[in-house]
Request: fold
Amino acid sequence: MIARIVIFLLGTITGLSAVADNPQVELKTDLGTIQIELYPAQAPATVENFLGYVDKGFYDGVIFHRVIPDFMAQTGGLTFDFQQKETRDPVTNESDNGLKNFRGTLAMARHNNPDSATSQFFINLKHNAHLDAQGSNTGYTVFGRVVEGMAVVDKIVAQPRGLYRAFPNAPNIPVRILSARRKAAAATVATDDPQGG
Reply:
């Protein structure tokens, strides 16, 4: 019961509320486990794309290669020796889905082309409002959030960086996603509104 209340309160703080049947994924990293909840109702193409990579084991062994304190921690595409993994076709941008880049949310990394996201994603470390869709400006698609393990994310952020000239924001000792697997959805307070309204 206490765990349910904590998850609900975290959802209220971030503007996102847990939905009982939303997919959940467990990311086991070198520094601990991160549990994430996905939002297929708001970002159907992005969630399908992400789960496709999860189900293929694509994320197993990738590193957090771009970690910027007070901004975000990015992963999902490079091996420990900074080799780019081969990805599928890009996914359509869904940043106008009403979800915001609050602390703890997951969003797709992309190039200048809004529809260029493939496998890489990041975890927001604060509310990055400039990454949200605003008017005619396309943002970065939010498709999930951390429901347990932000302390692990903070550990990743605290790692020393700067050893690799080509990747100055990568931790000096690579932090890997050891495995990414679907989990049974947690029994949480159900709501149809991920904004908690």
In short: The chain has one domain: 22-183. Residues 109 and 121 are 5 Å apart (CA to CA).
